[in-house]
Amino acid sequence: MHKTQSRGDETTGLSEWKKRAPYKIHDPSEHFEAKYEASCHCGRVKYQLNRVEPLDSKLCHCTTCQTQHAAPFQWAAIFHKEDINFVNGHHDLEWYDPTDKSIEHKLPCKVRCSYCHSPIMDEGRNMILLFPSLIHFKTKADRLNFKPRCHMFYGQRVMDIPDGLPKWDGLNDTSNLIEDSPPDLVREVEQKRDKERAERFEKGGNK
Ligand SMILES: [Zn+2]
Ligand SMILES: [Zn+2]
């Protein structure tokens, strides 16, 4: 099949994805309690969220996000796939996998509105990283729930953001904390890694 015809396609069938989270439309009997409403720029894609606080909220400075979002960095909030309910336009989506540069639906991939091309979310294997800029926040408290908690791939940044938040050189939790990261957290991570190193050494020595 030609690449342009495979848009929205995947190996298990053209329409399989529509029946699965995060794309499946919740049945009224599931009592999906909408805490937030969101839409893309053109309004064709609309969704709701039933979780008040995201599992995490972060700013990514990697060069892929810079290119894909045409922005100095990207703001993403992590949710379970079951936390989202598309109420409109969930068939008007397009995918892009930056690793394989493929437009087929395979995970992980980036999800956009196929009309206005607003980035909607990154769909991972288990979670979704959605872009809170699309949410219509009604109160300041609502917005505060989505306040970024860390910076990742800060080593690739185009600008400094001296906000005192943790700043990971690469991926959060596995790379190093740099710049004005909270000193307590830097110490905590160092101690944790020293301990892990010692444990690894002990295990190796006991073989
Ligand atoms: Zn749109
Ligand atoms: Zn990124």
UniProtKB/TrEMBL annotation:
Pfam families: GFA
The keyword Zinc appears for this protein: yes
Keywords (A to Z) from UniProt: Lyase, Metal-binding, Zinc
Record bears the keyword Lipid metabolism: no
Superkingdom as given in the UniProt entry: Eukaryota
Compositionally biased spans, kind Basic and acidic residues: 185-207
Coiled-coil portions: none
Region (Disordered) location: 179-207
Domain CENP-V/GFA per the UniProt entry, residue ranges: 36-169
PANTHER family registered for this protein in UniProt: CENP-V_GFA DOMAIN-CONTAINING PROTEIN-RELATED (PTHR33337:SF40), GFA DOMAIN-CONTAINING PROTEIN (PTHR33337)
UniProt record similarity statement: Belongs to the Gfa family.
Protein name from the UniProt record: Mss4-like protein
Species per Swiss-Prot/TrEMBL record: Phyllosticta capitalensis
